[in-house]
Write a structure and sequence with these properties.
With 160 residues, the protein is of the alpha/beta class. Helix content is 33%, strand content 16%. A 5-stranded parallel sheet has the order 2-1-3-4-5, sandwiched between helices. Helix 2 packs parallel to helix 3.
């Protein structure tokens, strides 16, 4: 009769720690991944090109639905979201869904807009309203590309 063997079994994680099927948002990467969501093809491509030249990995998408799918799949470090995208969820709706999902809640969001009043009916300045909606900050599309890159770096806590 063969001898019984004691095979060690690793301990289960403590009950207080949530178990995620996917890794937490914004996994440690040597180069941060930035998702750019904007319905304006030219603006999206120019910003994506500038961010790549600044040393970021970039994925560019055309609407909120695609932004949500890519965010769930890739868990970027930052989602740069145009507020007013006509197809699918708007940038604000996209940000709220990202922040409301435990698997993506750690993805930082940054709103951008070319409109003078991107939050009609809401009082407060653009950065304050952005914070209320879960975004880390706000930037106007009319800012220079260098200013957009610097804002992305500041939100991500990276240096040039």
């Amino acid at each position: 009769m063969p001898e019984e063997q004691n095979i060690p079994v690793p301990p289960a994680p403590p009950a207080s720690e949530p178990i995620h099927e996917n890794p937490p948002a914004g996994p440690a990467r040597s180069v941060p991944l930035v998702l750019v969501a904007d319905d304006d093809n030219n603006f999206r491509e120019v910003v994506a090109t500038k961010l790549k030249a600044a040393g970021f990995e970039v994925i560019a998408v055309k609407d909120g639905a695609e932004a949500l799918a890519k965010t769930k799949d890739l868990k970027p470090n930052l989602a740069l979201l145009d507020i007013n995208m006509p197809l699918g969820p708007s940038g604000t709706e996209t940000a709220l869904e990202i922040k409301g999902n435990p698997d993506t809640a750690g993805v930082k969001t940054l709103f951008l807009s070319g409109q003078d009043d991107p939050f009609p009916g809401m009082s407060g300045d653009k950065p304050d309203v952005s914070h209320e909606l879960g975004a880390e900050d706000f930037i106007m599309k009319t800012e220079s590309l260098d200013a957009i890159v610097e804002k992305v770096r500041r939100v991500l806590g990276t240096s040039s």
